[in-house]
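Exercise 7.
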Amino acid sequence: MNNSVSLRRIKVSNLLAAAGILLFIMLVVPFFLSYFNESVFYFEQHKYKQALEQDNVTEYRSLSGPQIKVHKEGSNRKITINHEEYAIRKLGDPFNIKYEVAYPNGRLFQVNDHGGLLVSYDENGDWFVPITAFDSNGQKILPKGEVELLNPSGLVTAAYSEYHEKQGEPVFFVFSILLLIYGWCGYRYEKFQNFLFKMSFYWLWVKEAEPSDFHYFMCKVGGIIVMILSVVSFFKSL
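Solution. The predicted structure, written as tokens, is:
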């Protein structure tokens, strides 16, 4: 009678464990495929994702930055940010790609593609790197007498999807899942703790060695530490 009850408990626990694993996979796999396959770009310290695409207009949105609209005109682009329009012309050839960026105030900049690295130059052909500082509220701090000037390279990045990148670090995500599984097994299951004892090869030079209470305790402590590291790795992957 007791054996049948214990067998039922084992079967129920196994079913619950299998259901938990299946539910975990059903949640993790769609997240992995959707999140790490989504392309993003950073503009003025804000992370942007594609929100809408209709005809030749693509709309990008950020949680904290202004909306960006990109109008496609062949190989050229027009970008609308805060009701201001920036025109970009693609120049050169596939081996020497350049862009001319026209600002609403009439200023022109050139952006050169050096193997995927975008470098900006001003009207005089000098290397242009806008120096930007932000206050505690995330607002730009502009030098006295100067007007806000968006980064030409950032505008080109926003305008052309080939400069967008897949977000996150999938390797760290997978690593966090493996750490979580290892940590949970080390904390929860005695059979896994016994397996760890055998893997230590302590039994090779100690006759009839058996895991001590201290070994089980350290397995639980180590499992907790590994699970904490899995959480750190998970956030590192995002």
